[in-house]
Amino acid sequence: RNMSSAGPEGRKKMRECEGLIDSLVYYIQGAIADHEPNDKATENCVCILHNLSYQLELELPESYAQSIYVQRRNISNNDKTPGCFGTRSRKVKEKQQDTPLPEEKSNPKGVESLWHSTLIRIYLSLIAKSTRNYTQEASLGALQNLTAGTGPMPLAVARTVVQKANGLPSIRAMLHVSHPAVKKTAVSLLRNLSRNPSLQNDIAREVLPDLVSILPEGVPGCEVACETTASICYTLFNLTQGSSHNARLLLSAHGLPKVIAISINDSNMFSKASRAASVLLYSLWLHTDLHSAYKK
């Protein structure tokens, strides 16, 4: 577990170690099957996998882009592909929504397991069944890492979490735990998921009222809570920017007074949350059909 946080070279060596990732996944599967999701070894295994999934899209060899997660459309040869799972060019980003998702291997080995739907479901199971905060945080954090990029792999993981594995109820429950780091990581994961336009209505329907409910009445007084508040505001921004319906959901959940209260705090220490709230307010005002409702 300590070695897995030793930086890019350490992660690379551990990902390449034959049988290591398979063994970690095997152990966690056994713990879940034996109804033992709270033992310390399971926590260690999940924390290692969390660390090994960090910057995964950027750090994998280019060969994985060609052999496993290859976009299925005819993309111009002029488009460069600096990332392992897809290009960062605007042209491909515009096509990305129409690109079929990559095909999974039925029997993943080693590093291939890190983004496979089997492990995604394991993380969601641990989030739901474990009562260990570190295990919950590491499971959420691994999913946050896997959904952080812009290529086909993060897109595929996000769709698996939301649509195939029905993961939103488990993530939503983590918004209401008392442990600040677990809550912060759950919100960060939702922020990543909410960047995907095809998932925004599902996310808004399932968790938007919960996100509003955990917004403070003003800027919170500690750094972790301040960062969590900023992430909530940016998640709500993603969900409401292109949807008047979702903006109305925020309104009906009594979110507007909270967002206004957070936005007017001008203390430098908490400017991150205030700035995020201000960006959200500006975006909400662009829905001109809601102006009369806002004024009321």
TrEMBL record:
Feature: compositional bias, Basic and acidic residues: 94-107
Any one GO biological process: desmosome organization
Keyword Oxidoreductase among record annotations: no
Top-level taxon in the UniProt lineage: Eukaryota
UniProt keyword Transcription present: no
Compartments reported by the entry: Cell junction
Region (Disordered): 79-109
InterPro entries per the UniProt record, alphabetical: ARM-like, ARM-type_fold, Armadillo, Plakophilin/d_Catenin
Gene Ontology cellular component terms for the protein in this record: adherens junction; cytoplasm; intercalated disc; nucleus; plasma membrane
Main location (coarse class): other
Entry keyword set: Cell adhesion, Cell junction, Repeat
Family listed: Belongs to the beta-catenin family.
Name of the protein this chain belongs to: PKP2 protein
